[in-house]
Amino acid sequence: MKKHRLILMLLLVASFAACEKEKPLDVKPSQLYGKWVRTGTQEYWTYNADSTGNKVNREEFEQDDENNGDFEWTLVGDEIRHIFHGRQGNQNIPKYYTITAITATSMKWKDDYSNTMYFSKVN
Fold first, then answer.
1. Nearest to residue 116, comparing CAs of 20, 47, 39?
2. Does the pLDDT of residue 14 top 80, yes or no?
3. What is the pTM (predicted TM-score) of this model?
4. Interval 65-85: pLDDT, tens
5. Angle at the Cα of 18 from the Cα atoms of 14 and 19, rounded to 5 degrees
6. Contact 36, 43 (CB under 8 A)
7. Domains in the chain, please, with CATH?
8. If we measure between CA atoms, which residue out of 71, 117, 119, 85 comes closest to residue 98?
9. Which is nearest to 72 in space by CA: 58, 51, 87?
10. How does strand 34-38 pair with strand 91-102?
């Protein structure tokens, strides 16, 4: 009987360990500064040190599109928060992404729908 309890306890410990969440990345704002291009597109994201930025899709040249133009950004842990101004009837449009990997030359995000986006730093 003691053997069964021990086996049960080991199984419980193993199941809790398997459910452990990944620790969020500790991303520094300075890692974002500069211009990034989304892989396979002509979509350029520029991050300035004053927490402003700009997104341009050179394939469309649509500055009045809700996802293009000037934005303010904040970084909270591994989450980038973009606020695009004056889109959809002069309302601010928030967009949130989770950085899942970042180096000096590459970055990977996922959105709320688990879509993954890859970026390369532009020199």
1. 39
2. no
3. 0.73
4. 555 788 999 999 999 999 887
5. 120
6. no
7. 22-122 (2.40.128.280)
8. 117
9. 51
10. unpaired
